[in-house]
Predict the 3D structure of the following.
Amino acid sequence: MKNVKLFSEKGIRLEKKCVDILVSKLKDDLHFEIDSLEFNFVGTETIVEINKTHLEHQHPTDIITFNYSDENNRFDAEIFISVPEAVDNSKKYGVTPDNELGRLIIHGILHLLGYDDTIASKKRKMKLIENELTEKYKRFTKGLLKK
């Protein structure tokens, strides 16, 4: 997909086609435009460093989203996803790593659209939409993480 870039750290192999299809489907459903959107699939060390530097948190997290645009429906953004955290979460929630990575892509895009998960009521609303989209598009995430 034009204007969508995918980077991954050494040893992390992903299928860009899966990301492109998922983002395209979300773009149609959620009505946003993309100037530039970078997905960075990283390891624990990198996500901890980003979390520490930019959010002043001292722990790993599964996703960090940076929106460089003033508009919520036109993206100039970066999304960092920790693959080890996603794999751990997939085990914890009884889903495939592909499904969990798809959920995180959806979660990041919802953040870019202005959804918030810091307040309980807003988190519930965001989670409901995230779950609905994850279920709707899970077939497109199959094979996302290459073995």
User: Anything to note?
Assistant: The beta strands are 4-8, 33-42, 63-67, 74-82. The mean pLDDT is 95. The first strand starts at residue 4 and ends at 8.
